[in-house]
From TrEMBL:
<dbReference type="InterPro" id="IPR036691">
    <property type="entry name" value="Endo/exonu/phosph_ase_sf"/>
</dbReference>
<dbReference type="Pfam" id="PF14529">
    <property type="entry name" value="Exo_endo_phos_2"/>
</dbReference>
<dbReference type="InterPro" id="IPR005135">
    <property type="entry name" value="Endo/exonuclease/phosphatase"/>
</dbReference>
<feature type="domain" description="Endonuclease/exonuclease/phosphatase">
    <location>
        <begin position="174"/>
        <end position="276"/>
    </location>
</feature>
<dbReference type="GO" id="GO:0003824">
    <property type="term" value="F:catalytic activity"/>
</dbReference>
<protein>
    <recommendedName>
        <fullName>Endonuclease/exonuclease/phosphatase domain-containing protein</fullName>
    </recommendedName>
</protein>
Length: 366
């Protein structure tokens, strides 16, 4: 007896029920899908512009090449002069937020934090590499933080309260030495003398006063520091004010064997020390004033809507050839949905309400 299925062709093409949009063109069906996804008018307009370009009567290579070249314009590089923040935080754990806010407010690329304490690692400075050296007690310790747009190399030393960092990626390389010298402890400054090279900036809390360096008197430690600085061929970088809040003393000192470096006291923070900004007028790095903003929602939509095409292409080409074309297509789509926007000079890292709370605390403590 012949079965009902004996006349069926086993080699027939696959059959799928037609969708409700079987009368729509691929472009119209994609447009309909965007409406179902409830895209915003702005996102829908961007995706549709890509679909119109895709379904135009051009070759695959022509469309992809157009997307690869979209938005490409001569980059406008600008020189950013180096700013170094020096701040005795008297405990990083309690002043990390205000220090981070200050770093981004003045656009510092390098930071020297002294007396950071044991909680130095509780709140890391975003987009910076941080180098720490413990102190001789729980309240000491020094951190140097370097922006990730610069290359920082640590010079390994075994001296408490001292960090030495070489920095490249600038118009000329520099060496940063950050130190903290507690009041009641002895220190041999000659230990760091071998690390003083051309292009060195030495800064930190010396707890030493020198009359010629904006303090009322020269104390015993100050006389020793001044003599050592002269022998080391370093020059004092004058500060616009004293660094201590509790007295007229200037105990946070900076030195260098480079010229055109200025030092400014920033009347900011809840520590007993004013923060200090060093500005290097002849040392800079190049930066692009525009940063990319990618519409990832539009990117995902285009990849999804055109996935059927690429599934069919898999059957036409070798795996290697298909892969090369597909990754080129993905990169081109990303470039097409990316626009360049001029970056803000200062964008607060912290929410506005936290910054306001910090200001209130500073008013109370100061």
């Amino acid at each position: 007896m012949q079965s009902r299925t004996s006349n069926l062709n086993v080699h027939a093409k696959e059959f799928f029920p037609a969708s409700e949009n079987f009368l729509l063109s691929p472009r119209d069906e994609a447009t309909h899908q965007l409406e179902i996804w409830n895209f915003s008018p702005k996102d829908r307009k961007l995706v549709l512009s890509l679909l119109y370009e895709w379904y135009s009567d051009r070759t695959l290579n022509a469309v992809v090449e157009q997307w690869e070249n979209a938005g490409i314009a001569p980059s406008k590089n600008q020189k950013e002069y180096i700013k170094i923040l020096c701040y005795n935080v008297e405990g990083w754990g309690t002043r990390a937020l205000e220090a981070i806010d200050l770093v981004y407010k003045i656009q510092a690329s390098i930071c020297i934090f002294t007396e950071v304490g044991e909680l130095w690692n509780t709140c890391r400075l975003p987009h910076f590499n941080t180098f720490y050296q413990k102190g001789t007690n729980k309240n000491g310790g020094v951190c140097i933080a370097v922006g990730k747009h610069l290359k920082a190399t640590r010079i390994e030393i075994n001296i408490p309260n001292t960090v030495v960092i070489d920095i490249a990626g600038l118009s000329e390389p520099i060496r940063i030495i950050g130190i903290y010298w507690p009041t009641s402890q002895q220190r041999d400054l000659d230990e760091i003398l071998p690390y003083v090279v051309d292009g060195t900036i030495l800064s930190g809390d010396f707890n030493a006063t020198v009359k010629e360096w904006n303090s009322p008197i020269t104390d015993r430690r100050g006389a020793h520091v001044k003599e050592w600085i002269n022998e080391s061929n370093l020059d004092y970088i004058p500060l616009t004010s004293n660094s201590s809040k509790r007295s007229l003393r200037n105990i946070d000192l900076s030195f260098s064997n480079m010229s055109t470096i200025s030092s400014e006291a920033l009347f900011f923070g809840t520590s007993d020390h004013w923060s200090i900004m060093l500005s290097c007028e002849n040392i800079f790095f190049d930066t692009n004033s525009f940063c990319p903003h990618t519409n990832w929602k539009a990117f995902e939509a285009v990849i999804t809507l055109l996935q059927t095409f690429w599934m069919r292409e898999q059957k036409k080409n070798s795996a290697d050839e298909w892969y090369k074309q597909y990754i080129r297509f993905i990169a081109a789509v990303k470039n097409r949905v990316t626009h360049r926007k001029e970056r803000d000079k200062y964008k607060p890292l912290l929410p506005a309400y936290i910054i306001e709370k910090l200001r209130e605390i500073r008013k109370v403590r100061n």
